[in-house]
């Protein structure tokens, strides 16, 4: 990969191009800079294409052109390199006012000064280290660059972008400044651990880097903080560091090494200690590589070359304390950002919540919704999201669900486990109603197992969006290992998106009233916590649901006004009514009759008054007198239980 540095004419042209929003012609580019790279030789507009590509990465900052990711750093002009170098390299000695005695700064100081103003990343059209080194070599002071190269963002920043932009069919014929910036960023990990030696040098001669003809101060890649801790506080220390610096640490390297240190206080004798150096790195450390999962799918690597490190030296001699070296600088990523978090492990608390929700029988989608509404809860809000993820992907939830099912096969009907989960959810303030399974209790209300889950956020949403709106009750069966039904109610928010406002799980033993009782108790618990009511509740055509909710609402003072029910009126969803007809009746009839019956039923449904409905219905029965299937089916809808819930007249 070759890199481009603008010459003056090309940069001026780019500035105009950015300002006016127009692109120059092939000839104009060529005139400005004959060495301007060509996107592809096959095209006559190869330069313009490359121009647009480069332009898309640039912005116009005040009066100069900059790379869009670092808008405060000027893109240098090739011709200016010498001037830029001299301006940063030569300073006037403040003690002698004469200009003649200018001081040559060390290469490090010079580089630092340049990179504070100019773009010094070649991948971002900055100046190259080679040109810098050339300037340095030709300077009268000949400070020279030591074996250690100037460490800038060059080595790591943008390396990821690089991977992105190199595609197989792209021809990049530009022969520009060569650069070794693709070198392995972990190379310098092999440094020796002469920590105290380094510190001694800087202590003896703090100005080592600024004075002339001195060996530049040897420092490691980045500044570090050093501390000495006792062995038993290591775990806590790592924990504290992780929290303070929002970092998820992973062990990168463990190796035997020697470190020199002073033996004890007051005794300045230095000894070399043999021990183990354990290097922890930020989870975004390393060289970005694309992992190939299969021939087609590619997963983006989490590595962005972050240089955050914690190095722990454990001397073999057990009487010696631990040395901790902290390199506290994240780079190329923002700890806690969304982009960052998808590479983090899930926090144990969140995983436990998910396991609990799935464990009591909720589906992956329901669990996902539940976790979403728990994000603001105390237990999740306090999680450091630079270290942990607080959500699970659908794939992870499915995996978790699968694991739970597998383990369930061993102890079927493990009610004890369910209690433990319910207990934990209650401790988290999520479970608002819980009743143990007690099938032999004298009081029928105390027999079924009932669990109602609602987060504080869900309660607030229910409170806010229920007035003048409608709840839709949704039930799922048999998706969990117990085969317990899960009921939930959904209320539309201001954007008409359905928000689940609670989950209700109950036992449904056959030939008992468990389910009806459970749903009733659950609804009562939910309504009790609210001061607003929906106008209507839409349910499935299920007698259990109907009777349960009817009874729950019967004694609810907020649903009634002067003996008339004004809120929480039960309705059947027209969509589901039609679906029921289509699925249960129509297949039994032949083509034309099915179509006719369907039309007549829809007509009946839309009758605005009971008078017109009755007239229409009488006609309907007369017409299909001889088709028993139709009349019999119709009786199922035309009964007191249901008719007011699906005919418009009853709404
Ligand atoms: Zn010099
Ligand atoms: Zn980092």
TrEMBL record:
Residues 450-551 form the ZSWIM1/3 RNaseH-like domain. Residues 147-190 are annotated as: Disordered. Signal peptide: none annotated. Pfam families: ZSWIM1-3_RNaseH-like. It comes from the Eukaryota. Residues 166-176 have a biased composition (Acidic residues). Residues 149-165 have a biased composition (Polar residues). PANTHER family: ZINC ION BINDING PROTEIN. This is Uncharacterized protein LOC109463423.
